[in-house]
Amino acid sequence: MEAVRERSFLLRKAMSPTQADVLKAHRRRSLQRRIRAILRDTAVLVREFWRILTLFVVALLLSALSFQWLWNHSQHDPIRLIDALYFVGTLLFFEPTLEFPREWYLDVYFFIMPVLGIVFLTLGVADFVILLVNRRSRQAQWEEAVASTYSQHIIVAGLGHLGIRVVRELVLLGEDVVVIEIKPDNPRIEEVHSYDIPVIQGDARTAEVLQRAGLGRAFSIIVCTNNDLVNLQIAARVRELDKEVLLVMRMFDDQFARSIAENFNISAVMSASLLAAPAFAGAAVRTEIMQTFSVEDRVLAMGRIEVTCGSRLEGTAIADIERELDLSVILWQSGSAVDVRPAPDTVLSAGDVIAVVAELPKIKELANRWNRAGTR
Question: Distance between CA atoms of 356 and 331, rounded to whole angstroms?
Fold first, then answer.
């Protein structure tokens, strides 16, 4: 019983990565992604305030150049441009670093520069600094700003039980992701934020929300809310706005899913019932199905087989198994050694573990006929 529980736990873990698994993978590149997010957000802020920032920089440079020229042509020791920039900059904010000079034309700077500083602060420089330093105070704007700079990213519409798992898988794949979620109090948003993924709050059925998520620049969009009708409405709006984007949609009814895919130019429609059925059937016949996926009209599964002592699998080469059962062995584990796509002449021993990809009947035959003790 304990062994069954352990296999069940490992099966669930293999089928869906946990938040801890994703965070562990995410931390390996979290610094790089965080720097990218900060740079993207800063670029958006600069674009928003570029006029006033340009005027501020030009005024600062002209003031520093003119002050340096006047100072160096008076009875003072020459100063460098960097010294003049520092002095003018501190003077803008009422913190002069020089004593009043004797020349009246230099005294003017002590009165004009603080006034210019007040003008620029009120015109937007202060707002820019506040927004730059306190990014999280404008969470929605920050996330939209980051999303606006993404390109060739993947949009996930719907953050339900399936949506959060899709996000985890995409993070493990290293993809840039933007999430659309209609419920601002969804507890899964906090997990998504831990991956530095922007969440656009709103209804994905509206063009405005899709555009805020960067639909026009996206590589693909995955529509996976818990409502088939909502998914269909989102897909229709996506196709209305973008005819070329890769569109993947979740549907519960497999017949309806096929009909939708044929008539609405949808790249892939995943039926929950169609994909889940082989896993349930495999569990019922004691076959560990780790993953299911569809290729055109065929549903394939990835199964885990541990070679039983005294079974037909023991002592058999992988090439013989693949040839006779028309399946693919994609992984072989013997003790601590793991080989992805093992050599065809690899001979299996008792206790070895293999992962195979095939249709469910083939996996069932492998598990029940080839891997049963006493069949060798």
Answer: 7
Closest to 92 measured CA to CA, from 47, 126, 131, 69: 126
CA–CA distance, 248 with 208 (Å, rounded to integer) = 20
Flag whether the pTM goes above 0.85: no
- Delimiting residues of CATH 3.30.70.1450 domain(s) in the chain: 285-370
Distances (CA, A) of 95 to 113, 116, 117, 211, 259: 11, 14, 11, 46, 72
Pick the CATH number of 49-133 from 1.25.40, 1.10.3300, 1.10.287, 2.10.260: 1.10.287
Cα distance between residue 32 and residue 30, in whole Å: 5
pLDDT string in tens for the chain (376-residue length) = 344 344 443 344 444 566 666 766 666 555 666 677 778 778 878 888 888 889 988 988 998 898 888 878 887 788 888 888 888 888 887 777 666 677 778 778 778 888 888 888 888 888 888 888 776 666 777 788 778 778 899 999 999 988 999 999 888 888 889 999 999 999 999 999 888 889 999 999 999 999 999 999 999 999 999 888 899 899 989 999 998 899 988 887 666 666 777 666 777 777 766 666 666 766 665 667 777 777 777 778 888 899 999 999 999 999 999 999 999 999 999 988 899 889 999 999 999 999 999 988 888 889 888 888 876 6
Which has the closest alpha carbon to 11: 305, 273, 274? 305
Q: Which CATH class is domain 285-370?
A: alpha beta
Specify the domain boundaries for CATH 3.40.50.720 within the chain.
Answer: 14-30+139-271
CATH superfamily entry for domain 14-30+139-271: NAD(P)-binding Rossmann-like Domain (3.40.50.720)
